[in-house]
């Protein structure tokens, strides 16, 4: 067997030209002060420690695991250098077979979970096992860990784009309509022209960039590529995550395990075609710059370098502020939390963020904020608003309830694992204290607003980068001082050791990773019955908007259908399930007459359409709004009424027009 790698071979990060590597900032005497994740074989530089007002014991690193002594005898020595390619290739082959043999034509309440071919689950388990044994091998380079994480992203985020012929999620279609509006109008408009939807023109950054991209690549609309956006936006997070984690450790096992857990735990679904997906990546980018260039190992103090990194932060903050309402607030509280620690008590990033945020709110976004301010003030402190989901919006049915509980258990397990990692890894907790603060910083936002009943999900997402680092640390050997290691080694001398290949530290974390990775699928894709709109539903809705003259009104049960906001600058919309409970009861009591009265307000130049699709049925049933029988009774009443005329329909839905409206 090859002799154990030296500490330098095991843990030293690759140098970046022109950049000091974290943990290797050399002192004048040539000594290398220890950082979390770097082995320390020499006594620490006492003069350097005393200058900071404290002393530290040298620590051992996770890289001090013996060569392969705690791994099972598999794989054989022959071909050991290339063996990580075998499970990775097998997993991707199984995935390829699964997606070509998955039928999504009839989804049940379990969404994609029950539709996937069984080989998908086998491939995912093989991928996790291959990653775990590869990342624990101290002789493997970062490239193999990167390859496995990319494989995970393909299996997690690209599966839906491959198996579904149309993009998912009604809100993604809505954002496509906003991009189309910018392309059509050629500029921004106010509430006088757009009503409530003018809010998108007051935060236009993401949509303007997408409009430019559509023109640049020469496609008809963003719908041509938005199905792949979850994969693209997830890839955008990889670099800032790596930079953040490498600030506190050079041990690739901890770095890549944390990255893996982050992607598994981030099931919230904000990676779809949305401003939040880009704003979150920029949020992590700002934190990466602050942690690496404004901290103890950074080069951001004074001079041209400080001005350069402040400029970089300013550009990213501007892009966040003009694109998304919530992320600047999350960034501000995160930067404020970092200022609680002495090494990061540089107020420049925080002041820059707050000034830019306030400047935008008091100028371009002022019309929306002025109208919304009373509701925003009333919601402050309403923590209960984050626990309710609106009018009877409670998951119903075995599939919806089961997938909701899997998501909760996955998030709860990761957060509990993070707490255990913080308590267990005393040395790492001290050296990576900023990540503890970043994980806790979003929590006060619960009291700021319910954010449309979504604040609980957004807080979870912003907690994950810090929490996943310590969740990974909980699965790996403890970081300890050299003195503690020596004492334990002396106490352990003469005791029997666990049989090779049966050690707790190898198999229990592996099983936890497998369970968490498999749980991601129902958490992320378990409600695809609501999110997927088959081509026939897209065609039906498109037919409505193609024939609707300017000033028309489209009435539907709710907004869960594709193209729900198509031509929103010319066509009005009304979703009766978002009305008061009393009015919904009136519709249930006398559907045709009540709807005809509601639809009669259409302008004389337009027409009034009633649209009911399978996406609305799925959303209403799975969220406990109205049962399928109640919706069918409404549709039957409209069909039998002489006030309405059927103008289009197929197996995915039906369209009626109110008679008597101007043609």
Strand element count: 5
Coarse shape: globular
Helix content: 55-70%
Average predicted confidence as pLDDT: 81
Low-confidence stretches: 1-56, 63-76, 387-393, 498-502
Helical run tally: 30
Q: Could you tell me the strand content as a percent range?
A: under 5%
What is the CA-based Rg, rounded? 28 Å
Distance from N terminus to C terminus (CA atoms, Å) equals: 85 Å
Classification by helices and strands: mainly alpha
Described by strand count, sense and barrel closure, the largest sheet is:
5 strands, mixed
Cross-sheet strand order for the largest sheet: 2-1-3-5-4
What does this structure look like?
By secondary structure, the chain is mainly α. Helices cover 56% and strands 4% of the residues. The protein has helices at residues 7-11, 46-51, 85-100, 112-115, 118-135, 142-157, 159-163, 170-185, 191-194, 199-202, 205-217, 229-246, 252-265, 275-293, 303-321, 327-338, 348-361, 366-379, 398-424, 426-431, 433-440, 455-475, 482-492, 504-525, 528-531, 535-547, 581-589, 591-599, 614-622, 628-640, and strands at 553-556, 572-575, 608-613, 644-650, 653-658. A 5-stranded mixed β-sheet has the order 2-1-3-5-4, with helices on both faces. Helix 13 (252-265) packs antiparallel against helix 22. Mean pLDDT is 81; it is low at 1-56, 63-76, 387-393 and 498-502.
């Amino acid at each position: 067997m090859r002799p154990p790698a030296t500490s330098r071979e095991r843990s030293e990060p690759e140098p970046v030209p022109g950049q000091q590597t974290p943990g290797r900032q050399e002192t004048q005497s040539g000594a290398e002060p220890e950082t979390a994740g770097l082995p320390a074989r020499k006594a620490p530089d006492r003069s350097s420690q005393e200058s900071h007002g404290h002393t530290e014991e040298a620590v051992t690193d996770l890289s001090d695991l013996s060569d392969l002594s705690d791994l099972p005898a598999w794989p054989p020595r022959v071909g050991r250098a290339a063996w990580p390619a075998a499970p990775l290739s097998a997993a991707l082959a199984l995935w390829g077979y699964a997606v070509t043999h998955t039928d999504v034509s009839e989804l049940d309440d379990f969404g994609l979970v029950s539709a996937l071919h069984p080989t998908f689950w086998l491939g995912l388990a093989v991928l996790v096992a291959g990653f775990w044994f590869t990342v624990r091998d101290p002789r493997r380079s970062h490239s193999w860990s990167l390859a496995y994480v990319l494989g995970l992203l393909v299996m997690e985020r690209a599966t839906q784009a491959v198996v579904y012929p149309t993009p998912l999620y009604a809100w993604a279609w809505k954002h496509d309509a906003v991009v189309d509006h910018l392309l059509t109008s050629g500029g921004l408009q106010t509430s006088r022209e757009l009503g409530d939807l003018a809010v998108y023109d007051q935060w236009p950054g993401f949509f303007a960039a997408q409009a430019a991209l559509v023109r640049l690549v020469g496609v008809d609309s963003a719908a041509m590529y938005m199905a792949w956006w979850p994969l693209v936006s997830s890839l955008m997070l990889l670099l800032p995550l790596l930079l953040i984690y490498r600030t506190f450790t050079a041990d690739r096992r901890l770095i890549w395990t944390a990255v893996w857990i982050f992607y598994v735990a981030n099931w919230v679904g904000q990676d779809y075609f949305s401003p939040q997906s880009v704003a979150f990546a920029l949020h992590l980018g700002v934190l990466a710059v602050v942690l690496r260039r404004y901290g103890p190992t950074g080069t951001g103090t004074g001079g041209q370098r400080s001005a350069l990194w402040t400029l970089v932060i300013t550009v990213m903050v501007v892009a966040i502020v003009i694109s998304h309402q919530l992320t600047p607030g999350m960034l501000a509280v995160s930067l404020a939390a970092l200022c609680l620690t002495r090494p990061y008590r540089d107020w420049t990033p925080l002041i820059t963020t707050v000034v830019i945020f306030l400047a935008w709110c008091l100028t371009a976004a002022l019309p929306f904020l002025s109208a919304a301010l009373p509701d925003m003030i009333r919601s402050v402190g309403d923590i209960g608003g984050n626990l309710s989901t609106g009018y009877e919006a409670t998951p119903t049915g075995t599939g919806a309830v089961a997938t909701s509980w899997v998501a909760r258990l996955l998030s709860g397990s990761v957060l509990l694992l993070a707490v255990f990692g913080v308590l267990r890894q005393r040395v790492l907790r001290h050296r990576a204290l900023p990540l503890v603060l970043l994980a806790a910083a979003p929590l006060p936002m619960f009291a700021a607003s319910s954010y449309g009943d979504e604040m609980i999900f957004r807080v979870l997402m912003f907690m994950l980068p810090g929490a996943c680092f310590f969740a990974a640390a909980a699965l790996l050997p403890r970081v300890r001082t050299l003195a503690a290691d020596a004492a334990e080694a002396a106490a352990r001398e003469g005791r029997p050791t666990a049989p090779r290949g049966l050690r707790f530290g190898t198999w229990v974390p592996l099983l936890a990773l497998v369970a968490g990775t498999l749980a991601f699928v129902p958490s992320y894709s378990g409600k695809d019955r609501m999110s997927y709109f088959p081509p026939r539903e897209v065609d039906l809705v498109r037919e409505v908007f193609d024939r609707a003259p300017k000033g028309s009104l489209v009435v539907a049960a709710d907004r869960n259908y594709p193209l729900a906001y198509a031509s929103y600058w010319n066509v009005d919309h009304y979703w009766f399930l978002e009305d008061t409970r009393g009015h919904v009861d009136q519709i249930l009591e006398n559907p045709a007459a009540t709807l005809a009265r509601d639809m009669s307000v259409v302008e004389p130049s337009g027409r009034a359409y009633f649209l009911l699709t399978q996406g609305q049925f799925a959303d209403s049933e799975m969220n406990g709004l109205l049962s399928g029988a109640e919706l069918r009774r409404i549709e039957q009443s409209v069909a039998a009424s002489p006030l309405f005329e059927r103008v289009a329909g197929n197996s995915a839905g039906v369209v009626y027009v109110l008679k008597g409206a101007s043609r």
